[in-house]
Amino acid sequence: MSVDKFQTIESTAVPISIENVDTDQIIPARFLKATTREGFGENLFRDWRYEKSGELKSDFPLNNPKYSGTILVGGKNFGSGSSREHAAWAIHDYGFKVVVSNFFADIFKNNALNNGLLPVQVSDGFLVSIFNAIEADAGTLINVDLQKQEIRLLATGESENFQINPYKKECLLKGYDDIDYLLNIKKKIAQFEQSRT
Amino acid sequence: MAGKTLFDKIWDAHVVDEIKGGPSVLYIDKHLIHEVTSPQAFAGIDSRGISVFRPGQTVATPDHNVPTVDQHLPIKDELSRFQVNKLTENCEKHGVTIYGLNHPYQGIVHVIGPELGITQPGMTMVCGDSHTSTHGAFGSVAFGIGTSEVEMVLATQCILQPKPKKMRISVEGELSEGVTAKDVILYIIAKITASGGTGYFIEYAGSAIRNLSMEGRMTICNMSIESGARGGLIAPDQTTFDYVKGREFAPKGEAFDLAMEKWEELKSDDDAVFDMELVYDAADIEPMITYGTNPGMGAKIKDHIPAVEEMDLAAQESYKKSLAYMGFEPGSPIEGRKVDYVFVGSCTNGRIEDLREVVKFVKGRRKADQVIAWIVPGSKQVEKQANEEGITEALEASGFKLRQPGCSACLAMNDDKIPEGKLAVATSNRNFEGRQGPGSRTMLASPLAAAAAALTGRVTDPRNIK
Asked: Is the ipTM of this structure higher than 0.85?
């Protein structure tokens, strides 16, 4: 199952300037009963987004009409907690292609990369610049160029390079997935098993 | 050349291949699966038209989404029933061993792996659950993975993983009376924060760790992920070997002796270099509890909740939001708060030793009337043992009732939900907003502190109950 090829993204962004956004907030456990990968976007940030009555909480950024786009910007330690890949599915299913933070939890980062969702880790200072730029103008555009590993604020021209494992970069750009890679080396895996006995 | 860490030794022995500039192809000895994070992985291999590569190395049990009462009846909730049945279907189709809801081996994956002897030193183990780190207590490299990775393991018995950095945390000295393994790990996470371990694999060492039982070591390793670390491990020793010996799937007779010879070599070399080393004094550790909405927000029960000004400027907004959710005033004392619920259970503290501790503590006393207490054994075997040892009866005499095994109110996927606004003292591992049910408030603590709260109806330092 290949994933979509990752193209350069130029978009406005939705800011959630909260630290330690854990995967229980991204998708609460009670929504993990599905046996398919689709439809989790509906319950993304469920308890921050909706009142108990089902009404939208107007002060939550996802519900604020001035914010939109395919880039989600979060605070430090984004995606901590549970290993549920449903968190990455929910963010992607909602329509985001990139998540920006100054610090990601390890499992979330892997899960995101395995689903064509690009985690972009920026410096503390650059994260502040992004939040400030969005606050000044919610329509501000951010450019994420995976090939160049660069994130740029178009309004100010401020930019920063980000790290990504070269193998993962290639996978995202070409739409390859890890399982295809592993299936291709099954013979080698069997040989490894032999060598251990 | 510097020596190798225990982690390096196990990891390196399982590398099938290295991708240039990329992750390692890591071979997985044992794979545990449950109903919530595996259906999409099975669907993935089905859609590729392939079968499970090594079905004998995967073991399944439903735990996250099962009721903890009336397990002999069909599950009432339709989606839950479908999900649990799906696990059975997938396992039967692919020849994977499953311990279903009414099987004597069913239970929380991280409780049954060790008690059945599936977990052994030197192994690589994964599961689509972040608390897979529990198994590191046996000196194995065990960590949680996402569903795409579950699919990789089903398809090829391998995953692609970048190698983490190594940290060693040593706790030296003797733990005081009333201080448990749970207090040690809550203390460590409070020190290094909920993200301090990110990017690392932790080796726990030092005399205080070495003196812990296997159950205690599992509690420590279990919560490694709450510091952000992918996993934690402890070098195996005689305590480990004694625990493993004689268990259902442990090697037997001569095979055990041979295995033990290899296991005895599983330790970090004296000159091994860690990327980070931390040392704590066991004497400084006292009964702990969390007061906020991540496991790093912990303090000694006798202390106060920190004032806002004690936090970094950048973290103050999140800190205020967190305390507002809990309904706590910054700077106020922790002890004495009214408690509505007590939850004893989970892969962190749902083992027989935990129940023994609780029963020893509450025997001859009564649960406070206004507290609703859920005591949930980690597995059918724990439940059976509790019945045989008279624990169930003794708990009932004190006003408690034992439920049936499962993850239960740790993540509240089933009906075991703490109601909105209610305060729970829980022996589980996460105090996130809404973790135990929408609007629920959680304080994480040891089984002793949970028992103390159940008796007094207040947050209580267990040492104050004579």
From this structure: yes
Tell me the shortest Cα–Cα distance from A183 to chain B, in angstroms: 6
Using CA atoms, how far residue B82 sits from A10, A90, B44, B101, in Å, is: 41, 21, 18, 13
Which residue on chain A is closest to B440 by alpha carbon? A47
Residues of A with Cβ-Cβ distance to B62 under 8 angstroms: none
Distance CA B22, CA A31 (A): 34
How far is B147 from B141, CA to CA, in rounded Å?
19
The list of chain A residues with pLDDT below 70 reads 1-2
User: pLDDT averaged over chain B?
Assistant: 97
Determine the residue among A45, A82, A186, A187 to mutate to test chain B binding: the one whose Cβ has the most chain B Cβ atoms within 10 Å.
Answer: A82
A70 interfaces chain B, CB cutoff of 8 Å: no
Q: What is the pLDDT of residues B1-27, one digit of tens each?
A: 789 999 999 999 999 999 988 899 999
Q: Within 10 A of B67 (CB to CB), how many other CB atoms are there? A: 21
pLDDT digits (tens, 9 = 90+) for B342-370: 999 999 999 999 999 999 999 999 999 99
Distance CA B225, CA B201 (A): 9
Beta partners for residue A73, in sequence order: A15, A100
Tokens of residue B57, six digits = 């190395």
* Nearest-CB residue to A83 (from B128, B194, B434): B128
**Taking CA atoms, what residue in B is nearest to A35?**
B39
- pLDDT value at position B395? 97
- pLDDT for the residue A79: 98
Distance CA B351, CA B354 (A): 5
Quote the DSSP letter at residue A7: P
> If contacts are CB pairs under 8 Å, which of residues 126-185 in chain A contact chain B?
165-168, 177-179, 181-183, 185
* DSSP 8-class letter at B293: S
In whole angstroms, what is the distance from residue A14 CA to residue A72 CA?
5
Provide, as residue numbers in chain A, all residues whose Cβ is less than 8 Å from the Cβ of B144: 83, 107
Q: Above 90 in pLDDT, residue B39?
A: yes
Burial classification of residue B191, based on how many CB atoms lie within 10 Å of its CB (0-12 exposed, 13-18 middle, 19 or more buried): middle
